[in-house]
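CHAIN AND CONFORMATION:

***
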Amino acid sequence: MAIIKFINNKNSLKKTIDYICKEEKTNNKLITGKDCTSENAYEEMMTVKNMYGKLGGREKLHFIQSFNPEDNLTYETAHEIAIKMANEFFNGFQVVVATHQDTEHIHSHFVVNSVNFETGKKIQFSQKDLERLKQYSNKLCMQYGLSVTQESSKVDDIKINEYKAKQKGISWKETLEKNIDLAMEKATNKHEFFKIMNSLGYKVTWTKERKNITYTTPSGYKCRDRKLHNEKYLKENMEKYFKEKSITKIKGVKKQQETQRYINISSSLASIIQQFKQNNQNEYEKNLSSLSDSAKKQYWMENHYSLEQEDDMEL
């Protein structure tokens, strides 16, 4: 499954290109220019802007295609998919594609010049275009045997400052997500979830009236569920998760109770059978002891014992 995330920021075109092409994040084999050279992408993009007199406004479009860590994928294949994405969706626009190697999850950056080199028009990229891009990403993933997601995202796109913080390992949202995961694993229902989150220093506002869950961190930051960039944290999905977990626990308790009940019944039955056998044995010995020797032999014969067997047994 590949997730498409747009990065909204005011960073310059040059700064953005320099960032995605850093040596510590990728290598030359994983950097490709579409309709421009990767080495001189900034200069060539600025030439197009100057040619059409389009130096103002938005300089670029920047987004990330991020793959599921569980997918069997190499950096080279991810880069190949990214190049196909760029060629399909950005006809007439220069694009720099860089696939990063510095994190556990494989992902590619796209920086698109905002000015079309054929028409001189500025790029117009709507929500409809975004959905088409996501659908094409899914199509490519299926072609390469990767997992896909069919539903459009209900969470907000990541901001550049959040992305950089994640890369440095200092994101308070990432810490919040890890603590939510921990509480979800330990808690059986949302009330236990509240207690665990409170013990970690978080305040959770989760009511029927509100559409979203709101978290307040120990440092005072506030964050709604849709700002966490993963749909599993949305209120409806959290409620479904704990409902299923509670049902599983109830079934487990009932099964345990039934097992214990069966054990108790079996134990009682065994005790009754043992007592019955003991009573019969006592009655048998009592009756046998009152018989004469000839009567005893007759008894053994009637009960299918041989006289030799009777002689061998202690009477």
